[in-house]
Design goal:
Layout: E1 3-8, E2 23-24, E3 27-28, H1 29-41, E4 47-53, H2 56-65, E5 69-71, H3 79-90, E6 96-100, H4 109-121, E7 127-135, H5 136-148, E8 155-158, E9 164-168, H6 178-182, E10 187-193, E11 196-200, H7 201-209, H8 214-219, H9 223-228, E12 233-237, H10 252-266
Parallel strand pairs: 1-4, 1-6, 4-5, 7-12
Antiparallel strand pairs: 2-3, 6-11, 7-10, 7-11, 8-9, 8-10
Helix pairs in contact: 1-4
Length: about 270
């Protein structure tokens, strides 16, 4: 299966302009994401890597760090639109596309490997994405983060087969009798979503042609357009070190949390 891993890196974010070029621990977020993808693609001869952007500043940075870059329109509605445009511009005849946002510098390389393996085992999968089951301490940290940045961090509800039933910027599900559940073990029943997607190319073309969904617009989550149009999303649950789930970057405040995370893990 011919695959492209494409990193949509938009400079003109309304909440955090220039976010992919922001530095964490002295290195740009984008350079960290490129390193993750290179590690995940190592040894897979059928996987290509490229960045998709609308801004020359990011293209220049890609040249500096030695990664292919495709210029895309500044009218792309979502990162998924940008991924499809980049794939079509590259004209690589890709069967499967993966999208890792340029603001996800702590994504485990194993997440992409698990997604690629899932699709290899079941080529009928339309969309695949990873989730993390949160420890109670991580859930507490997410709740605290949402007090100041309520739209950072996305959670998901899954069925027994791992298919996503819903995603939200709110923490779902609500938990009754939480004290009892906490006594049963380290892990909560809450799954946090990682902003990494894999799509069959035909499914992504269908997605891009669909109008924005009602709940997609309300939540600001493009993956809800799939669910609102009955396109199933398969999840893979990955294991990460304690605290890593909180290292996503959605706002300038998250940079400070990421710096603290790096400092803590360097000790």
């Amino acid at each position: 299966m011919k695959t492209a891993i494409i990193i949509p890196a938009r400079y003109g974010s309304s909440r955090f302009p220039g976010k992919p070029l922001a530095k964490i621990g002295g290195r740009s977020m984008l350079s960290r994401v490129v390193e993750i993808v290179r590690a995940a693609a190592a040894g897979r001869g059928d996987v290509s890597l490229m960045v998709a952007t609308e801004d020359a500043r990011i293209a220049d940075h890609c040249a500096a760090i030695g990664v292919d870059c495709i210029m895309t329109s500044d009218r792309c509605r979502t990162g998924s639109d940008r991924v499809l445009e980049a794939a079509e511009t590259a004209d690589g005849g890709f069967d499967f596309l993966m999208s890792l946002q340029g603001d996800a510098p702590f994504t485990p390389p194993t997440a992409m490997a698990m997604m690629l393996d899932a699709v290899a085992d079941n080529p009928e999968i339309a969309v695949v994405t990873p989730v993390i089951k949160l420890r109670w301490a991580e859930l507490d940290a997410l709740r605290e983060a949402k007090r100041t940045t309520p739209f950072s961090g996305t959670t998901a509800i899954l069925d027994e087969s791992g298919r996503a039933r819903w995603f939200s910027k709110n923490i779902i599900p609500a938990i009754r009798k939480e004290e009892t559940l906490r006594a049963d073990g380290d892990f909560s029943p809450v799954y946090q979503h990682i902003g990494l997607y894999g799509y069959r190319t035909d499914v992504l073309k269908r997605f891009v042609a669909l109008p924005e969904g009602n709940y997609e617009r309300l939540e600001g989550l493009e993956q809800l357009r799939f669910l609102e149009n009955d396109i199933p999303i398969q999840t893979v649950t990955i294991a990460v070190d304690a605290g890593l789930a909180q290292a996503g970057i959605d706002s300038p405040e998250d940079i400070e949390r990421a710096e603290r995370f790096l400092e803590h893990n360097a000790q």
